[in-house]
Write a structure and sequence with these properties.
Radius of gyration: 22 Å
CATH superfamily of the largest domain: Type I PLP-dependent aspartate aminotransferase-like (Major domain)
Distance between the termini: 51 Å
Helix content: 40-55%
Keywords: Pyridoxal phosphate, Transferase
Largest sheet: 7 strands, mixed
EC number: 2.8.1.7
Number of helices: 14
Family: Belongs to the class-V pyridoxal-phosphate-dependent aminotransferase family. Csd subfamily.
Number of domains: 2
Strand content: 15-25%
Bound molecules: pyridoxal-5'-phosphate
Cofactor: pyridoxal 5'-phosphate
Pfam families: Aminotran_5 (PF00266)
CATH class of the largest domain: Alpha Beta
Length: 414
């Protein structure tokens, strides 16, 4: 891993690599604070994908012609690059999916449906995204396994005593979000994985909000599975990643069947190809893999530690400015090492959707709703919240614009 470098980013120069950030609506420049939903894409990624289409486009693993060979190598190398980026032990442990949601479903179907028995436990947390929560609920219903939730305390942190209670010898899998997309909480996922392993349970980590903005090493966490999406880390939509320990992936049945994932097929039966191709049937997202490779290069060139430091600094500033407003309620822990780069909040007397619409009048893009964490919002006692989420190109001035726009909402609604 590169030397720890916390030099401030040249945000002005970085912003120039994102033409979309220069866009104006009604004469006002876009303030893009919806990065937890999707980050913007730098020129380097767009160029890598358009170069691929212009110069190397072909299907992979099926042709011996030059273009197919080039495309196959590019696709395979993208696996190698992602493996290196997250500390996996080679391309065999990196499965390309459509997104985090599909990565969750892959494990739920290919492992959960086959392995879970009635009375066993699927342990989640109250702050899981629906991608994990709904998926495991379904697997629980179909297998008779019980789904239990580690409580979130009033500060927005996991109650680890409760986790120790729930994770016992009946637990078969523990699935936890690494960074909460609503509370911003950074969970102690290595500790949860250790707890799971003490009871012979597997550990799944949803890293959709972690990989984009902090160094992640799956071996250090000792996760059995780790999932994330390209479109939240300066990469393209249409590609996600499932990391899985090689021996587990080898034992697992495929999730989807078809061409490209087989070794031998007869009219009677079929056998499966090598990892990771066994889990990647059909024509995969080839250009997207090229884009994801470019995104990883781009992020690492800046440095993940610096990205994390920048994002935390902007989020802390946003937290402090919002906290100073008496009619604003913020959710999640105070700024510190266990809080990531987003802030969800409500303005007293104003529904989150109305607030977001006022923000849009100022060309400020934030997200309103439950952020795919409905049960967590029930737990917080609010139907919805407004979320501002930051990335490598955001500035304090943009946070100021967000806070200034609250005054309009007060005038109109409160
Ligand atoms: C924590 C978390 N998990 C999972 C997802 C689902 O990601 P995707 O929509 O890319 O499948 C998201 C997206 O918002 C997320 O924030």
């Amino acid at each position: 891993m590169s030397q720890r470098n916390l030099e401030p980013l040249d945000v002005g120069a970085i912003r120039e690599e994102f033409p979309v950030l220069q866009r104006e609506f009604d004469g006002q420049q876009v303030v893009y604070l919806d990065n937890a939903a999707t980050t913007q894409t730098p020129d380097a990624v767009v160029d890598a994908m358009s170069d691929y289409y212009r110069e190397s486009n072909a299907n992979i693993h099926r042709g011996i012609h030059h273009l197919s060979q080039e495309a196959s190598i590019a696709y395979e190398e993208a696996h190698d690059r992602v493996a290196e980026f997250i500390g996996a032990d080679g391309r065999e442990e990196i499965v390309f999916t459509k997104n985090t949601t599909e990565s969750e479903n892959l494990v739920a179907y290919a492992w959960g449906l086959n392995e879970l028995d009635p009375g066993e436990k699927i342990v989640l947390t109250e702050m899981e995204h629906h991608a994990s929560l709904v998926t495991w609920q379904q697997i629980g219903e179909r297998t008779g396994a019980d789904v239990e939730y580690v409580r979130v305390d009033d500060d927005g942190r996991l109650d680890l005593d409760h986790a120790r209670e729930l994770i016992d010898d009946d637990a078969a899998i523990v699935s936890a979000v690494h960074v909460s997309n609503t509370l911003g909480t950074v969970n102690p996922v290595a500790e949860l994985a250790e707890l799971a392993h003490e009871h012979d349970a597997l550990a799944f980590v949803d890293g959709a909000q972690a990989v984009p903005n902090r160094p992640v090493d799956v071996a250090e966490i000792d996760a059995d599975f780790y999932a994330f999406s390209g479109h939240k880390m300066a990469g393209p939509t249409g590609i996600g990643v499932l990391y899985g320990k090689r021996e587990l992936l080898e034992e697992m049945e495929p999730f989807l069947y078809g061409g490209g994932m087989i070794r031998k097929v007869t009219f009677e039966e079929s056998t499966w190809g090598d990892l990771p191709w066994k889990f990647e049937p059909g024509t995969p997202p080839i250009a997207e893999a090229v884009g994801l490779h470019a995104a990883v290069d781009w992020l690492e060139e800046i440095g993940m530690e610096r990205i994390q430091a920048h994002e935390e600094e902007i989020a802390r500033y946003a937290y402090e400015r919002l906290e100073a407003e008496e009619d604003v309620e913020i959710y999640g822990p105070e700024p510190g090492p266990d809080r990531g780069g987003l802030v969800s909040f409500n303005l007293e007397g104003v529904h989150a959707h109305d607030l977001t619409s006022i923000m849009n009048d100022h060309t400020i893009a934030v997200r309103a709703g439950d952020h795919c964490t409905q049960p967590l919002h029930d737990r917080l006692g609010v139907p919805a919240s407004t979320r501002a989420s930051f990335y490598v190109y955001n500035t304090r001035e943009e946070v100021d614009k967000l806070v200034d726009a609250l005054e309009d909402a007060r005038q109109l609604f409160a």
